[in-house]
Amino acid sequence: MSGYSHELLSSAVAFLPLAVMDNLSYTLGSLLLGGLFSATLTGMMSVQSLLYFKLFPKDKPRIKTLVTLLWSAPLLLNPDNSSHSGIRLLDVAHSATVWAGLWNYLIIHFDDTARINQIPQAISVTIILTAISTIFVHLFFAERIFRLSRNNWILAVLIVILAVLRLACACVTAGAMLSIETYSGFRNKFNWVFSAGLGLSSAVDILITGSLLKLLHATRKSSLSFDHIIDSLILYTLECGAVTCAATIASMICWLTMNNNLVFLGLHFVISKLYSNSLLATLITRYELRNSRDRSTSDGIVDLDMYNMRRVNIFTPGTSFTQPMQVSVKQSVVQYGPDGSTEAEI
Fold first, then answer.
1. What integer pLDDT is reported at residue 271 of this predicted model?
2. DSSP 181-226
3. Cα 338 to chain centroid, rounded
4. Where's the DUF6534 domain (predicted)?
5. Contact (CB, 8 A) for 335 and 343
6. In terms of DSSP bridges, do strands 334-336 and 342-345 run parallel, antiparallel, or are they unpaired?
7. Strand ranges in the chain using DSSP code E only, listed in sequence order
8. pTM for the complete prediction?
């Protein structure tokens, strides 16, 4: 490299607000790790999608469409459902844009340190795709809370409003990134928008998790023999909500406190996958809960708690796991003789 070119490159790097550019482990390294974890979660989602369509071939069309929208490998198991074929696959599109952005950084502009401050168009698109996947999952849980809370409109509408605002922030963020094209310029003008989007997403996660925990706990108090099922639901709800919320908060903290690296973006790559896997895992969990229910009622004895479980609709809205109440009555009459011996038993 000529002395003039070297001086020009050094000058460009010196003026970059991202002083990180001389430490690739926190820039390209974090992006690469984020991409690898994202790909791993995509594989997990594929397995869960196949399992879902195998276990629930007769699930509600809108639920199956939602799963297909997030990832449609299970179409191989459902060839008759042609309505799914025209749906855009969010997870595939997200993975493609993540790796397109990494290809831009690691291959096309390899060893071009000054380019790290540039925002590839593919990276900007990942922001909006993540928000779209997130709002689908949030709306799914909003409906579940609405039905579980016996039509609590206030709570459901609050979740929907916050989720829509989060999507709006993501749209503004993606548009600004496409227009400004540099991280330094974006931070100077739209830092608050991206922060607000992540904050809203975290708030929705906390609200959904807290609401589900409260509703499930209230149901448990009125339960007679299904405590183990409700306890499983409570634990699983807490785990799923904590994982997605923790990833979002971690990305927001890195964005606000680490102005000189791209760790926040590596974390942001996996958020979409965590939400999708959380939704699928929630759907698949119904299979084990159904088996637990069947084991609890297999002896034919009346279980009045099944009526309560049906009313509160713990499981996916519209999907009934309860059978019509059956009453088993046994009558025994024993007659004793004068000497106390048994003469007859009916």
1. 94
2. -BHHHHHHHHHHHHHHHHHHHHHHHHHHHHHHHHHHHHHHHT-SS-
3. 73
4. 201-286
5. yes
6. antiparallel
7. 334-336, 342-345
8. 0.73
- Residue 193 inside a domain? The answer is yes
For residue 340, what is the DSSP state? S
End-to-end CA distance of the chain: 104
Cβ-contact 182, 16 below 8 angstroms:
no
In a domain, 140, yes or no: yes
Q: For 149, phi and psi rounded to 5 degrees?
A: -90, 10
- Residue ranges of the chain with pLDDT lower than 70? 1-22, 71-88, 220-227, 291-346
For residue 326, give the amino acid letter.
Q
> Six-digit token pair at 128?
């909006």
Determine how many CB atoms are found less than 10 A away from the CB of residue 255. Answer: 20
The domain of 28 spans: 23-300
| Cα distances (Å, whole numbers) of residue 243 to 9, 231, 271 | 41, 19, 9
Report the C-alpha gap between 116 and 326 in whole angstroms. Answer: 67
CATH number for 262 = 1.20.1070
Look up residue 106 and give its two tokens. Answer: 């690691």
